[in-house]
Design brief:
By secondary structure, this protein is of the alpha+beta class. The protein has 2 domains: 146 residues, SH3 type barrels (Roll), CATH 2.30.30.240; 102 residues, Photosynthetic Reaction Center, subunit H, domain 2 (Photosynthetic Reaction Center, Chain H, domain 2, Alpha-Beta Complex). The chain is 23% helix and 29% strand. The protein contains 8 helices and 14 strands. The strands form 2 sheets. Strands 1, 9, 10, 11, 12, 13 and 14 form a 7-stranded mixed sheet that branches. Strands 2, 3, 4, 5, 6, 7 and 8 form a 7-stranded mixed sheet that branches. The protein is globular. It starts with a strand and ends with a helix.
Length: 266
């Protein structure tokens, strides 16, 4: 299901033995635009300490009830590695976090989630010895490809022929836990109008200049099907969007990838 990230913010995270807190923001991978972690505001029970929850742990999303159920206990979360969300999250931090929970490294496989297309497609967490975990952490670099949705919101959008607006939000696939679309507020052209562009159409992002460069013309973006965040995104709308831009939809690319793998890469 595709959902605007603003609708996911504030969702209650429920562990097997109680509530953990509420979703504050997301950390996504700037290479694949997959959401790697949900940053959780824990409130009083952890002294306000923010924690990260991996989509690997999500077992059920009830958006009507504004709740995410996770296969964790409060004790597990309390004893999880402390990560300062105000600083860049390194691969070493991630290796420690994923190793603690017994999750695979998502960067250690051919798919968006390492050995699987979706986090739910993975097997149960595995137990890692302290020695193996220490070695796993030691071998990782300090480089990070994680970006905060909160920090990127407001970035200017540069089309192929000039500025067109700014990042106003994100549309998230809560099965793949991937950002499928960037919500563009075209305030410089039509106040109040919003359109969507896919991360697949992003040429590059300048993190220092706070700009997202897309390989589309301003005219193409201007004439794209309008996005109304109060209206559910249907496959019919997505088809119109991709047809307008003349770009193949992500679900066809992923189906092609599956077929290629099923044939042994031939």
């Amino acid at each position: 299901m595709l959902t605007n990230s603003t609708c996911l913010k504030g969702l209650v995270i429920r562990a097997s033995d109680g509530e953990l807190g509420t979703v504050d923001q997301f950390y996504f991978d700037d290479e694949t635009w997959a959401i790697r972690y949900l940053a959780i505001e824990t409130g009083g029970w952890l002294g306000g300490r923010p924690v990260l929850i991996s989509p690997f742990s999500v077992v059920h999303a009830d958006l009507l009830d504004k709740r995410l159920d996770v296969a964790l206990t409060k004790e597990q979360v309390e004893k999880s590695p402390d990560i300062n969300t105000h600083l860049p999250i390194s691969r070493q931090h991630e290796a420690a976090y994923l190793g603690y929970y017994g999750y695979p490294n998502y960067w250690g496989g051919p798919f968006m989630w390492g050995p699987a297309f979706y986090p739910a497609g993975l097997a149960s967490p595995t137990t890692t010895s302290a020695e193996a975990l220490a070695d796993r952490i030691r071998r990782e670099s300090t480089d990070s490809h994680l970006r905060s949705t909160e920090a990127v919101t407001g970035y200017n959008i540069e089309a192929a022929d000039g500025e067109i607006g700014h990042v106003n939000g994100f549309v998230v696939d809560d099965e793949a836990w991937a950002i499928r679309y960037i919500e563009v507020a075209t305030r410089n052209w039509w106040p109040g109008n919003k359109v969507l562009v896919s991360p697949a159409w992003v040429d590059r992002v300048s993190w220092t200049d706070a700009r997202v460069y897309v390989g589309l013309s301003r005219e193409a973006i201007k004439n794209a099907p309008e996005y109304v965040d109060s209206t559910p995104i249907t496959r019919e709308y997505e088809n119109r969007l991709h047809l307008h831009y003349g770009r193949p939809p992500y679900w066809l690319r992923e189906a092609e990838h599956r077929s290629t793998l099923a044939l042994g890469g031939v």
